[in-house]
C-alpha cells in the first residue's frame, strides 16, 4: 500500500506541477503516466524496447509522456549491472539530439518528489550540461534545441536557484555559464539584471547559489577576448560591482563578530543550525570575493595598456588587507574549537592574498597607488621576516606573502623606463608610465631600504632555505622521491621553493648589494661547520642552505667567489668525508658542480672587463672564445668529473641522482669528449647499476639521458659496444608501455648508432626489432614513438655500410608513414636517398613500385618547402638508375612538367628554385633517355593534367620545356645550366621544324654554358663530405652511403659528357635533318657577337 501511495503521489505531483506551470515547453497537455517502472526499475528487455522505440521516433520531439522513459534510462545508466547500464547509455545517446530531451532532464532535476534521489538528479544534470555543450549552438547535422525550448530552459534555470544539493547546483551553475557564453547578451540580455534583482530578497542559501552562478558565468565570459565581448563584460561590472562589494563588506562585519563569539568556550554549545547558517554565509562571502575579483580584473582593461586609473582597485585593496589582518588572529584560536571555521579562515586569508596578487598583475599602475602598494608590501614583508608565532605553521599564507613581494619586485611596469618620447609637445602614455614607475620606484626604495633588503636575504637563506625535520624524514624514507619532488613541485606549492624563487628575484634586483652578503653567509656557514663535521647540526643545515643560495646565483657570484679555490679549499674535502650524514652536503655539492662548471666561463678567471678584452682579441685573431675558455677550465673539469663519478658510487639515491644530472650538464657542454674517455667505462657501469636500483620513471629517464650524452660525446664507444647492446635490449624489454622511457631509449640508441658509424652492423640484432616496432604505424604507441623512431631509422641507414636484408625489408613502413602525414618528410627523403644509394638494384627490384608511389604522393601533395629536399632524391635516383628510373617514376615526372610549365610569382625565390630544379631533372631525363621523355610528353594523361592545372601549351609539350630551359638559364646553378645545355643540344637532333625557329636561342644558351664552364663539384657533392655521419670522420674510408654517394656524383653523365662535343656533333645532325639551306638561314639569325662566341666555344677542346 505504501508503494501504491508513493506511486500515486508522484503521478499527481508531476501532473499538478506541469499543469500549473504555465508557459512550459509541454504546454497544457496533461502529464499522467504510470510510475511503477520509475519506482521498481526496468529490466533489460524493457530497456531494449525503449531503445528500439526511441530509434524509431528519432525525428519526433520528446514530450511529457517520455519523462518516465528518460527517468528509467538515467536510473539504469547508474546500475552496476552492465546488462542494464549499456542499453540505457545507448538509448540516452540516441535520444540526446531530439528536441525536448533537455526539457525532460530539467523536469527530473527540478521535481520535488525526486529530491531524495540525488544520484539520478545529479546524473540528469550532467547529461543536461553535456547536451548544452553539444547541441545548444545550431548544428547542420541535428535539429538540436529549438529557440522555443531554449527560452523555456533559460526561464526554468533561473527559477531553480534554491537547489539543496551542492553538486547539482554546481552542475547547473556551469550549465548556465555555458549557455551565457553563447546567448549573452543577444539572446539572454536580462540574465544579470534578473540575478541582481533576485539577490535583493534572497535567503542565505539562495544567495549563495546565485553567487555560484555569477562566479561561474563571469569566469566563462571573461575568457572571451573580442573587443565587443570585453565591452559587454565592462557593462556587467558596472551593473554588479557596487552591490557585490557592499554585500561582501556587510558579510565581513557579520562574520568577524560571530568568530569572536565562537572563540569563547561557552559558545561551543551554540545551536548547530546557527553554525550552519554562519558557515553558509562564510562560503557565500568567499564566492562573493571571487566575483568581485572577476569584476575588477576583467571588467576593466589593464591599466598597463590604458594608463588610466581603475578606481575599484584603490577602493577594494585596502579593505582586503584589513580583512586579512582581522582574520589572522582566528587562525590559531579556532583550530581546536571549530575545525570547520578554522579551515575557512585558512582559505579566506590565502584567497584574499591571491586576489591582491591577481589585481596587481592586471592593474599594476592603479595598484601602485600610495594607499595600496606600500601597506600591502609592508604587511607581506613583515609576515615573512617577523611572523607572529601562531602563523609560523601557516605555510600557504607565508607562501602567498612571498608571491606578493616577488610579483612586485619583478613587475616590469615598476622598472625605470629609459629613453625619450618622440612627441614632446604633449604628454604621452610613455611619459605617464615613466612618471608612475618613478613614483613606485621611490616607494619601493622607502619600503625596502638597504638594511631591510639585507635582512630579507638573510631570513630567506637562514630560515626558509634550511631543511626541516620533516624534509629530512621524507629524504630518509624515500630518497628517490625526495630528489624528484625538489625539482617537480610548483614553486607556489611549498614554502622552501617559494622562498628560493623570491631569493632569485631579490638577488636580480639588488645584485651588487647582495653578492657580498651571500658570500659572507657562505663563509660563515663553512667556518661554523668544518668538512670533518658529521653530526646533523644547525651549522650543517645552514651550510646546506648557503650552498643552495650560491647554486641559484652562480653566474652573479662568479666575480666575487673563485670557484677553483672554493672547490679545492672546501668542497673537495667535504666530498672525501663518507659519513652517511654528509649526504646532505654531498647532494648540494653535486648540484652546485653542475651549475658552476657549465655556466662560469672565463669570468671567474679574468673578471668581466677581462672577458671583454679577450672577446676583442679573439675577434681580431679569428679565435673561438669557447676554445680558450675550455683550455682555461680543463684543469678543473677533469677533477670535477671525477668528483661527480665518486658521488655516483655512493649509497644515497638522492645524491647519486643529483650527481647524474650534473654529469649530464658537464659532459653535454664540454667541447671535447677526450677529457672523459678514461672514465667512460666506469661511468656507464655505474649508470647501468643505478638503473637497476631506481624505481621511478623520472629517475630512469634522467639516467638514460646521461648515458645518451656520454655516448654522444666520447671518442671510442666500440670497446663498450657489446655491453651497451645488452643494456639496450634489456631496457627496451623492461620499458614496455612506458613511452617516455622508450623515447629516451630511442634517442640514446640513435647516438649509439651514429658513434658506431659503419660498424653499427654489430648491433643490428638488437636494433632492428626495436626499430621495426617503432616505425609501425599500427602500433599502440605510434603517436609517442614514431618521431624518434624515424630519426633512429635515418641514422641507421645513413651509417650502414651495406643494405642488410632486414633493413631492406623495412622500407614499406615508410610508405605507410608518408601516406598518413608529411610530418616526417625531411627525415623520410633522407631515408629514401640512403635506400637508393645503398640498396642498389636489389632495392629497386623489391620496392620500386613502393618508391614510385611514395615519390608520387610527396610531389603531388607537398608545398615548395617540402619539394626542396625531395627533388635532390629524385635526381639521385635518376643518376643511379638512368635507364630504369624514368619509366618507374613517370607519374612523378609528369607532375614536374606541370611545375615547370605553370605560371607563378617569379619574384618568389623559393618557387624559382623549385622550377629550376624540376627543369634540370627533366633535362637530365632527356639526356639519359631521350625517347622516354619524348614519349612521356606526348601522353594524353599529361595533356589532360596540364589542362586541369590551367597550363596552356601552344605547341607540343617538349617545345614548351625548351622554352622553360631557356628562361631558367639565369636562375640555375652551374650543373643545372649544363643539364639545360645538354638537353637543348639533344633537341637539335629531333625532327621538329620548330627547332629551326628557336635555333638561335638554343645556340646562344649553349654558348653561355660552354664559355662559362662548370665546376667539378656541384654544391650538393661538395657538401657531401660535411654530411658524413658524426661517427665516420674518425674511421677509415669504407664503402658506406656517403662514399657511394660521392662515387655516384662523380660518375654523373651530366658531368662526364662534354657539352662542346655534343653541340658540335648535334649541329651537324641538325643540318642534315633540316637541310643546309634552312639550317644556315636559322643560324644567320644569331647576333654577330653571339655567333662569334659560338665559334670560339666550339674551338675549345
TrEMBL record:
Residues 88-163 form the Importin N-terminal domain. Pfam families: IBN_N, TPR_IPO11. It comes from the Eukaryota. One of its GO terms (biological process) is protein import into nucleus. The keyword Nucleus applies. Coiled coil: none annotated. InterPro entries: ARM-like, ARM-type_fold, Importin-beta_N, TPR_IPO7/11-like. The keyword Transport applies. PROSITE patterns: IMPORTIN_B_NT. It is found in: Nucleus. GO terms for molecular function: small GTPase binding. Keywords: Nucleus, Transport. One of its GO terms (cellular component) is cytosol. Belongs to the importin beta family. This is Importin N-terminal domain-containing protein. It comes from Stephania japonica.
